[in-house]
Design goal:
With about 260 residues, the chain is of the alpha/beta class. It is about 35% helix and about 25% strand. The strands form two sheets. Strands 6-5-4-7-8-9-10-11-12 form a nine-stranded mixed β-sheet. The chain has a three-stranded mixed β-sheet with strand order 1-3-2, with helices on one face.
Length: about 260
């Protein structure tokens, strides 16, 4: 019994000693001067809206030089908030390495549609439904949405959630634009086919394919899967036989029907 208790006590002391040593090492690392600042910009979609040099300039403008300074928790927190607040940044990771290198990893937003509203404001919506501004350094090649869109640009506003009754109207239109763009973006066939979403004055939607052979009258932003499946079948078994330029308009508004006009 005594031997077992001593064994437990030794393990406890060993773990406590390791914890103390790690605490000393962490504190020593916090007090160590910054040797170098390394900034990495990461874009899963390949859209470099922000360059590492731009982030470096923003950091230098607020902190002057970080090299040679001790990086306490307050400085690290301020640095993280600065990079995270940049409108094109989805997530920022700020951390130190053991050898004194300060790392800043900026994960950029992935746009799925560029919106031009009635006031001729232009902005992006990303995969998570957030609005973010255009970049002076790069223009993304994504779908365009235009027409009867009355919502003004609000940086960081999320349009993914269904708007409440008090916010219906213009925001609901942008919510539906996001739903359509998101559905198209997730399907490789439609992503390669559809270039433009148009919101008509009556609130219904038209889709314009990249080939420009016809206009797709989509109707309301409802029954997305049913309508797109119906259109895909029509393309496969209809237009491939009669020719892509046989009709100027293809209407998907009616259930289990595709109505075409020349």
């Amino acid at each position: 019994m005594i031997r077992k208790s001593l064994h437990i006590l030794l393990w406890f002391l060993l773990l406590a000693g390791v914890a103390v040593l790690l605490g000393f090492a962490r504190e020593s690392n916090n007090q160590a001067p910054c040797r170098q600042l390394d900034i990495q910009v990461i874009s899963r979609s390949g859209n470099p809206f922000v360059r590492p040099e731009t982030i470096r300039e923003a950091i230098t403008g607020q902190f002057d030089s970080l090299v040679g300074r001790s990086l306490n928790r307050d400085i690290m927190g301020r640095l993280h908030r600065l990079v995270q607040a940049m409108p094109h940044v989805h997530r920022a990771d700020v951390y130190r390495t053991i050898d004194g290198e300060l790392k800043v990893d900026a994960w950029l937003r992935d746009p799925i549609v560029r919106v031009v509203n009635r006031a001729n404001e232009s902005f992006y919506i990303d995969t998570d439904g957030y609005m973010f501004p255009l970049s002076g350094e790069y223009t993304a090649r994504v779908m365009l949405a235009s027409g009867n869109i009355g919502t003004a640009f609000q940086a960081g506003k999320n349009v993914r959630e269904t708007p409440g009754r008090e916010k219906a109207g213009a925001m609901e239109v942008l919510h539906d634009v996001y739903r359509l763009a998101d559905y198209i973006h997730r399907d490789p066939f439609w992503l390669a086919s559809i270039d433009h979403i148009v919101v008509r004055p009556d609130g219904k939607y038209e889709l314009i394919p990249g080939h420009g052979a016809h206009i797709i009258e989509f109707g309301e932003a409802s029954d997305l899967e049913e309508k797109f499946n119906k259109l895909k079948l029509f393309y496969k078994h209809g237009l491939t036989r009669v020719g892509w330029h046989s009709y100027s308009r293809v209407n998907l508004e009616y259930r289990q029907q595709v109505i075409c006009s020349k």
